[in-house]
């Protein structure tokens, strides 16, 4: 770990399309870090990326990079099936990890990561940048202080569109390599924000189907959720929706909050509505108290992750907080596959859904 005041040595593993967002975040925090290396099995691509972004060292081997560069932080941007092995190797080499979602393929893999964290004293944070917008943090405080009254009816819809060509990439469309469909790879961002804002969930009842793609995983899922605070919600994840939108609606006793966005959000994507003919200056004042307007971005999450590294504290989206969304996703799939409601805590190591989102031992 870098000494206080020194720059953190950072390496990237995986140089596919998502690297653009991560490079923007790394450049935003450039005064706090030194980007020392990039790794990819595709030698031509990693060389091009290193030239484009002036990264001094390129590798096709994670092992060699870790031995030679000794990074403090590794950003993992590879396909999901590769995450567990790379994360474990990075932790054991003394690095913290910032890993793209989904963090891993199963609760079994997550618990293996937790063991590696405990063994090495390093932490892993999942990329869930929606939580880090100013407005998200503001809403979280309003919920925690009961400023909007009791939460009651909640909607969380990731309505996106993907062609067959999107799924024709070798690792996509299969449970073993992509982990799942839009539930795990696209809608998981908004679902994470949803579950974080509203609180602990208790029960999920779900359906999933593959309606219009030649793939093994689902291209649509729908779920009903009961929360511990008594509120109820619905979730839709789709790659079948030509008019794309990420939409969240939160109905409280005193007001409705709505978000209409796509891949990221800030204050401008949110609105508040009061009941018809309501005169409630106190609730308006609570909502209007937000003055910052930071985008929910990789930039913001990386900055807070660096703060956590410097304080040697567990970052926000890790540990139990990261496991919670994975357990919810596994429970959603179990309900969809079995046709039965699933309660929090139901999936234990004697359950096939502990090892794979489709409950298959072949993908374990």
From TrEMBL:
Residues 138-257 form the GFO/IDH/MocA-like oxidoreductase domain. SUPFAM superfamilies: Glyceraldehyde-3-phosphate dehydrogenase-like, C-terminal domain, NAD(P)-binding Rossmann-fold domains. It comes from Phototrophicus methaneseepsis. One of its GO terms (molecular function) is nucleotide binding. This is Gfo/Idh/MocA family oxidoreductase. The lineage of its organism: Bacteria, Bacillati, Chloroflexota, Candidatus Thermofontia, Phototrophicales. It comes from the Bacteria. Residues 9-125 form the Gfo/Idh/MocA-like oxidoreductase N-terminal domain. It holds the Pfam family GFO_IDH_MocA_C3. InterPro entries: Gfo/Idh/MocA-like_OxRdtase_N, Gfo/Idh/MocA_Oxidoreductase, GFO_IDH_MocA-like_dom, NAD(P)-bd_dom_sf.
């Amino acid at each position: 770990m870098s000494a206080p005041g020194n720059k953190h040595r950072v390496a990237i593993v995986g140089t596919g399309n998502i690297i653009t967002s991560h490079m923007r975040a790394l450049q935003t925090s450039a005064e706090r870090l030194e980007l020392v290396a990039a790794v990819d099995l595709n030698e031509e691509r990693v060389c091009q990326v290193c030239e484009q972004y002036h990264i001094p060292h390129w590798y096709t081997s994670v092992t060699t990079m870790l031995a030679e560069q000794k990074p403090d932080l590794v950003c993992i941007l590879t396909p999901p099936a590769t995450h567990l092995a790379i994360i474990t190797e990075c932790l054991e080499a003394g690095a913290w990890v910032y890993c793209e979602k989904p963090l891993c393929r199963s609760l079994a893999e997550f618990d293996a990561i937790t063991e590696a964290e405990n063994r090495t004293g390093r932490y892993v944070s999942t990329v869930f940048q929606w939580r880090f917008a100013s407005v998200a943090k503001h809403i979280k405080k309003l919920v925690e202080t009961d400023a909007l009254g009791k939460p009651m009816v909640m909607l969380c819809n990731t309505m996106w569109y993907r062609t067959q060509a999107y799924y024709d990439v070798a690792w996509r469309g299969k449970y073993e390599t992509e982990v799942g469909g839009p539930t795990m790879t696209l809608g998981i961002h908004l679902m994470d924000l949803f579950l974080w804002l509203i609180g602990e969930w208790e029960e999920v009842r779900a359906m999933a189907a593959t309606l219009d793609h030649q793939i093994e995983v689902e291209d649509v899922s729908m779920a009903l959720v009961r929360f511990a605070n008594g509120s109820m919600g619905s979730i839709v994840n789709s790659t079948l929706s030509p008019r794309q939108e990420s939409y969240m609606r939160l109905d409280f006793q005193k007001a409705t909050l709505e978000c209409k966005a796509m891949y990221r959000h800030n204050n401008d994507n949110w609105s508040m509505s009061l009941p018809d003919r309501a005169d409630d200056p106190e609730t308006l004042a609570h909502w209007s108290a937000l003055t910052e307007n930071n985008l929910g971005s990789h930039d913001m999450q990386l900055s807070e992750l660096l703060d956590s590294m410097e304080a040697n504290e567990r970052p926000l989206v890790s540990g139990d907080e990261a496991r919670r969304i994975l357990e919810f996703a596994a429970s959603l799939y179990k309900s969809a596959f079995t046709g039965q409601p699933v309660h929090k805590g139901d999936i234990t190591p004697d359950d096939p859904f502990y090892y794979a989102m489709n409950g298959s031992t072949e993908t374990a």
